Amino acid sequence: MRLGDLKNSRMTTIVVVYLSLFLDNVLLTVVVPIIPDYLCTLDANTTSSVEEDENGRVGLLLSSKALVQLILNPAVGTLTGTLGYTRPLFLGNLSLLLAALLFAFGQTYEILFLARSIQGIASACIAVSGMSLVASQYSEEDERSKIMGFVLGSIALGVLLGYPIGSVLYDLEGKMAPFLLVSSLIVILICLQILTLDVQTNIEISKQQPTWLHLLSNPHILIISGAIWCSTSPMAILEPCLPIWLRTHIKPKKWQLGTVFIPDSVGYLIGTNFFGVIAYRYGRSKVAILAMFVVGVSAILIPLANTMSQLIFPHLGMGLGIGVADAALVPLLASLVDRNGNYGPVYSIQQVAVSLAYSLGPITGGEMVKAIGFPWVMRIVGIVNVAYCPLLIYLTLERRKLLAKKEEKKDYETFQQSITPYERFYDSDEDL
């Protein structure tokens, strides 16, 4: 196959979006096992009291990316209407490269904070434009659910590799090694995008564009976004707080700090890759209810572990629940705005929900750990996820009513079309 045949093809588009999300999440998670330990090393003090105080500092650094992304998501969603989807995606990959290089060479808290913030710019561009690009390429609901689940799997794969890459390379070669590896892969991706995607491509959008007020007043969009926020929050809290809690309670080896998150990634990978079509077939909101219940129960079980092996099943359940919820709800958002043709704004709202979780989670989680302890924080987050399920039940009932009305309208239109030829024949017979 020639390069001209690959240019702007659906397969090439999916590959570029997949790799962009993959590398963004590798960089997102590769820092998690490194930063807490590296900051403690800079302080040259590893006492228990200092490690507890480090919760807030590490939480602020990790959440800076999500805070920047939270601010920029609406702007990127609006700009996709005029710039298209490929140009913000290209800008996101360039920003991702800059962030990785700053992580590699930065040796102070301030530089690392700047690197994490720049990644927020990259993530806003990649997530909003990438998912919008996929939604615009696949208009069939069943095919869209399958492809979106596959693309969301890149997040899990990035997270799955990010934690162990960060912990193992940091242990063997030092801080620079994992970030230089990620930087090299991003350079290859940028070259691939330049060769295969036309950054000048514009999108055809309906003249009747939904306003932000219209989207934010839609209860279905709000409930779906709230579910994504709730299901993502436990992981956002675990990332900065769990390594420090493990160091003071279970005392694992340095390399184990990264591998503890592998079951989450495996669960998310399974959930996104295998439950997209299942959710479409059996009802997306129904499947999301079960997923959020699993997330809630898993969050409650995590603080009960006394060994590293006892963390495997709660983490696997949490990752599976989050993956199934995303595979069910993210394609559902696209179907709500299919009529308008611009998916940027609705996916910017979805990314705002994710950013809220990853910005408020580490900050509030770190402070709550100081006040009430890590076990109670996870119990509260688990209860919130279970308590959110009735809203998804309401969404299920509303969707069922809406689909019933559509079926009635379709049946009526079919009936009208069927009697039209008879009426024409009857009228013509009267004229004889």
Helical/strand content category:
mainly alpha
| Main sheet makeup | none
The tally of beta strands, per DSSP, is: 0
Note the quaternary state here.
single chain
Task: Kindly report how far apart the N and C termini lie.
Answer: 65 Å
- H and E order: HHHHHHHHHHHHHHHHHH
Principal-axes geometry comes out as: globular
Subcellular location: Membrane
Protein name: Synaptic vesicular amine transporter
Domain Major facilitator superfamily (MFS) profile: 13-400
GO molecular function: serotonin:sodium:chloride symporter activity
What topology emerges from the helices and strands here?
Blueprint: H1 3-6, H2 10-30, H3 35-43, H4 48-83, H5 86-105, H6 109-137, H7 141-173, H8 176-196, H9 212-216, H10 219-249, H11 256-259, H12 262-274, H13 276-282, H14 284-301, H15 312-336, H16 344-372, H17 374-387, H18 389-430
Describe this entry's structure for a reader.
Helix content is 84%, strand content 0%. The chain has 18 helices and no strands. The chain has helices spanning 3-6, 10-30, 35-43, 48-83, 86-105, 109-137, 141-173, 176-196, 212-216, 219-249, 256-259, 262-274, 276-282, 284-301, 312-336, 344-372, 374-387, 389-430. The termini are far apart. Residues 428-432 have low confidence and may be disordered. InterPro entries: MFS, MFS_dom, MFS_sugar_transport-like, MFS_trans_sf, MFS_Vesicular_Transporter. The chain crosses the membrane at residues 12-36, 88-105, 111-135, 147-170, 176-199, 258-280, 287-305, 311-334, 346-364, 376-397. One of its GO terms (molecular function) is serotonin:sodium:chloride symporter activity.
